[in-house]
Amino acid sequence: MAELNSTPNANRLHIGIFGRTNSGKSSLINIITGQQTSIVSEVAGTTTDPVYKAMEINPLGACVIIDTPGIEDHTSLGAQRLEKTKLAMEKTDVAILVFAANFHGGFGEEYKLLENFQKKKVPVLCLVNSFGQSSELDDLKKNISKRLHGESNVLLVADCSEAGGSDNRSNIIGALSKLMPEDYDEEFITGSLVREDDLVLLVMPQDIQAPKRRLILPQVQTIRELLDRKCTVVSTTTDKLELTLSRLREAPQLIITDSQAFKFVYEHKPAESRLTSFSVLFAAYKGDLKYYVEGAHFIDSLKEKSRVLIAECCTHAPLAEDIGRVKLPRLLRKRFGEGLQVDVVSGTDFPEILTDYDLIIQCGGCMFNRRYVLSRIDKARAASVPMTNYGVAIAHLTGILDKVVM
Prior knowledge:
It is a single chain. The protein is an alpha/beta fold and 406 residues long. The protein has three domains: 9-179, 3-Layer(aba) Sandwich (Rossmann fold), CATH 3.40.50.300; 199-281, Rossmann fold (3-Layer(aba) Sandwich), CATH 3.40.50; 295-403, Rossmann fold (3-Layer(aba) Sandwich), CATH 3.40.50. It is built from 13 helices and 14 strands. The protein has helices at residues 25-33, 78-91, 108-119, 137-147, 165-179, 217-228, 241-247, 262-268, 278-286, 289-296, 323-336, 370-382, 390-397; strands at 13-19, 51-57, 61-67, 94-100, 124-129, 154-157, 199-203, 232-236, 254-257, 274-277, 307-312, 341-346, 359-362, 387-389. Helix 12 (370-382) links the parallel strand 13 and strand 14. The longest helix is centred in the middle third of the chain and has 15 residues, at 165-179. The protein is globular. The two termini are 35 Å apart. Mean pLDDT is 86; it is low at 1-6 and 39-47.
């Protein structure tokens, strides 16, 4: 059972390790973690799926280390494995690209990966595993440095194995710490909406969708952050909203609600209390709020024959009144007609071809890291398909988007 104060994987720095089969990737992850995380073998293709290892690494903090299959996998399952590797790339905040110096077939695949990360502005540590060899290493390092435009993040490891000792680990972690995004983990879920000593009311419906005896992740994370920011936090359910407000000596500075209760809470809140939702907060925290708001206005152009994609991060078993599968489609069809086609995907499923859709509605993304959610936004932009999120879409459909603080 996970500890209550453990950092969810979605909020950890994701470090992806990429390279050829038997280039030393699995040995490298074992060095970084200090554990036998990945199986090391001379047999090609030992790593068949990405291995995700969550841990604390000083001074990097809470991390997820991702070990991936070889980028030139030619086995019968190679295509599927490479798809998993692409998915790992989309989640990667900082990449380690391993070059095996004992490989003499050229490094075209590695350079393609490097270029891909550079386009996405993902910091890359290029690690040259010399396997004890010294010939042609200078030329390889010069070629990599040239492609890095003179950057110094190229590290030579004489022996990328567990026998390489603590020096390798220290050097690698030191190099990674220099590549961490400067603003990483500095963003707040509640942004600039609260100040110390603010009274914040959370309206959290505990309906059939709520897990028994537990709160959902966005609620837990928001409560913890508000406590850290020295706010006074009061929680209630939708049906007890009016009673709760009557018992407060002053109106809350901010009310955060579940998006499903947007309209009710807006109609019953004090005039001076500002209103937002967990989903809207996560739209900014995990995605691109301005882009989502722009996408919401495309809802008005939908027609009965339009096609909408609803993308949900959770993989829970859908129940009655599920927001993605029932409530949102109902709101849309009530306005545009029963002929409106709505497709729902969950988890990491996301269509390769998006041009078949007129609109994409993404959930808050609490189960994914920001890098992965932004990769979906990039795909939507590239396909010229408008995209919004649950909370922003519901606020627009209920006519209160301009009343919601962001």
